[in-house]
Structure formats: structure tokens, C-alpha cells
Amino acid sequence: EATKKEILRFVNCDPEKIKVIHVSVSPLFHKADETFNKEKPVILHIGTAPNKNLAGLIEAVKGMSCKLFIIGEPNKNILQKLNEYKIDYEVFVNLSEEELFEKYQACDILFFASTYEGFGMPIVEANIVGRPVITSNLYSMPEVAGNSALLVDPYNIDEIKNGINKIITDGNYRDELIHRGFQNAEKFHLKQMSYDYFNIYKLLLN
User: Fold this and answer.
1) Burial class (CB in 10 A: 0-12, 13-18, 19+), 129
2) Is the pTM value of this prediction over 0.90?
């Protein structure tokens, strides 16, 4: 819906002619139980383009006991900050879908508070696996996450830090996010997407 609204800002089109169909999640992803590591949680971060807000996460976890799993190749400035702040981290590149799933299994929190997204598949992938999600309150991310994630202003470092601390320290809230995540993921099942496409084709034929 967020992308639809963007299109309508620039194109003079009947809104009813734009149909929104979400992306379905790979059937490879499934629930994977894991004991949450409160002492030193692993925070998974996917993507290293500027909009992915890795720089914001680094500033927020400065001085915090945690480890970052970074999917993608960070630039020199990012690596310099990681080392300057003495943040424990690992970098993974060119992962297969199976290897990416393994990183979801091994993490405690998904951080996906981008400054811009057209969709936000990692939110749903983490929902399915059973990991709490921190995401952005901008663009498509609130729509994709629903009530299954902690929403933050991606430009507000204190808000990001407080959000991470809340998930680490508040077990009841964390469990509630995970429970809502399983419910949210149901909306992105392949069967639902197939049904939506079928209805559009039927509408066109008529």
C-alpha cells in the first residue's frame, strides 16, 4: 500500500486500477526455537546499503553487550566504527537461502529499521522463525509488520537503543512480539498470494 501511494503521487491514475499483492515467503523458513541470550544477544542485520541503517544500529549498540551478524559487505567507514566502538561482529556475504535461514536461527533479534523500503521481507522471515523484530515506522514497514514488531524512528538513536533494551529486558513483551509474529506471517503465505493473483486475472477476463 505504501508503494501504491507513492505511485499515485506521480501518476494520474484511478486508485482502483492499482491492486496490491504482497510477496510470499519462501517455504524454507519455519519456526525454530531458541533460548534468548539476555547476556549477549545476537542482533541480525540484513543489508549494508545506506537505507538499511547499519550506521544507526552501530551508534545505538555502542557500549552494549551484544554481537552483530551483518549480512552484506560493510564499507570502510562502517568497519572503522565497528572496530573503534569495539563491537563484536561477524560479516556474511553471498549466502544461499539455506545459509540465511541458519543466521535467523542463530540470532536473538532482527534489526530492520531502514530509512526506506518498498516491502521488507526480513520482517516476515523473522516472524516465521520466531525472532523478535525491531523495524522502522516509515514507508512499507509498519504495513508489513502490523503489530508484530517494535517500531522505531530510524533516525533516532536513543529510540533504537531503548527499543533494543526493551526487547532484551522485558521477556513478556518479547514473547508477545514473537507470538504476534507467527500470526502476522500467516498473511504472507503462498496460498494467499496465489488466491490474490487469481482474483486479478479473473477480474481482467471479465
Assistant:
1) buried
2) yes
